[in-house]
Design a protein that fits this description.
By secondary structure, this protein is of the alpha/beta class. Helix content is 44%, strand content 23%.
């Protein structure tokens, strides 16, 4: 599965304090720029906010999939975050979000972007998988859930 190639153990985070959608995206932008120095946090944040302005990436059932194309991104990058407390994400069902998968892709990666989003939607559409994510005991356990077939 393509998701195995974009998510790493250090980018599988548990117990993050979100506060708000904006704060979470700011946190992620700083976090990912520390992980991947070629990405500037302000550029990542601006790209994510621009995408959110087109329509919320809160897909419902407590899940959000913020995603965008980034200029200096050379490969697709995924980060999974299980929030400590649910936050409002302007989700389509109005429910607060606690499971967030953030996806960054190179500007030209149209097919890959769509395949990754499709894979995420498929995984998140499984109620048993989402239950397991919510019941996981550690970030290591969360990562193992994502990478198993």
């Amino acid at each position: 599965m393509l998701l195995n190639s974009v998510l790493t153990p250090p980018r599988t985070l548990d117990g993050v304090s979100g506060g708000s959608k904006k704060r979470l995206l700011e946190f992620f932008s700083k976090f990912i720029s520390q992980q991947i120095p070629t990405l500037e946090s302000t550029e990542v944040f601006d790209s994510l906010i621009s995408r959110e302005r087109l329509g919320s990436t809160g897909v419902g059932e407590g899940i959000a999939i913020p995603h965008c194309r980034v200029k200096n991104c050379s490969e697709s990058i995924g980060t999974f975050i299980r929030l400590k407390d649910k936050i409002d994400f302007d989700a389509i069902d109005g429910r607060p979000v606690d499971l967030v998968f953030i996806l960054l892709v190179p500007e030209e990666a149209t097919d890959t972007h769509l395949q990754l989003l499709s894979g995420l939607a498929e995984k998140f559409s499984d109620p048993d998988f989402c239950r397991q994510l919510r019941e996981a005991v550690s970030s290591e356990n969360l990562y193992e859930l994502w990478i198993r077939e």
